[in-house]
């Protein structure tokens, strides 16, 4: 049996702390400026805490400190994500003092900005923009002010229904480890009401090629499905971190075990609802195949 060490990555933790710090400032400042600009698009929202509460974001992308610099390693981080449809992504301007945009399409494309466009995000710590990806597809986006960098969100409508749990995957059932470094997998219990408040505990256990367990951990959400991102790691440690926001959003498993061609079995179980073990066992097994 392989026993993994679950150490938390300080770099990732500082990133999520930036996000949480941003969120905190949003909470504190939104009482001062309750009406902020709302982009006239069906799912695009910019600004106030009220809109965040109406459409809770699942996944945080950071416009990183130094993003305005031409030699910055990234402008948006992560620069490429794969998410199930229905995922709301929130971009935070963590490059304090610099304005940026989140604009759909490639730079200079004739349809740039037609799907979503943040407009100029203010160079202040509370600036964020969110968009819900309701349709499958590859969404390239860029910054109008710094058009030498682009990033991508891939949205997939692939899912698998178990008896009790539905698993949606940002890449479908095949995780290409050469093309994708990360995929968001969402576990939605079909028999547990999702009220946005009642704590739900999920145990996720992963094994490869029907061998021993290579990962197991328990995650808690507040009356929500469990969005769990699997990331192909480049070092030998498994790092678990999240959620992206103060108490909601995606968790992340940065895992060296995602390697080579293999069939992974993902066992998902709801182990507690409001700290009480369910009367009927709520568990399903899913498969995810990897190729390199
Ligand atoms: Cu920019």
Short description:
The protein is built from two helices and 20 strands.
- Per CATH, which architecture of the largest domain? Sandwich
Strand arrangement across the biggest beta sheet: 10-11-13-16-18-17
pLDDT average, as an integer?
83
Q: Characterize the largest beta sheet: strand count, sense, and whether it forms a barrel.
A: 6 strands, mixed
Percent of residues in helices: under 10%
Return the CATH topology of the largest domain. Immunoglobulin-like
Strand content: 35-45%
Quickly give the structural class. Answer: mainly beta
Q: So how many helices? A: 2
Number of domains: 2
- Cα radius of gyration in angstroms: 19 Å
Output the CATH homologous superfamily of the largest domain. Cupredoxins -  blue copper proteins
The termini sit apart by 24 Å
Number of strands: 20
Q: How does this model look, in words?
A:
The protein is mostly beta strands and 292 residues long. It folds into two domains: 143 residues, Cupredoxins -  blue copper proteins (Immunoglobulin-like, Sandwich), CATH 2.60.40.420; 134 residues, Immunoglobulin-like, CATH 2.60.40. It is built from two helices and 20 strands. Strands 10-11-13-16-18-17 form a six-stranded mixed sheet, with no helix packed on it. Strands 1-7-5-2-3 form a five-stranded mixed sheet, with helices on one face. Strand 8 and strand 9 form a beta hairpin. The N terminus is likely disordered. The structure holds copper (II) ion (CU). The site of copper (II) ion (CU) has 7 residues, from loops. This is Blue (Type 1) copper domain protein. InterPro entries: Cupredoxin (IPR008972), ET_Amicyanin (IPR052721).
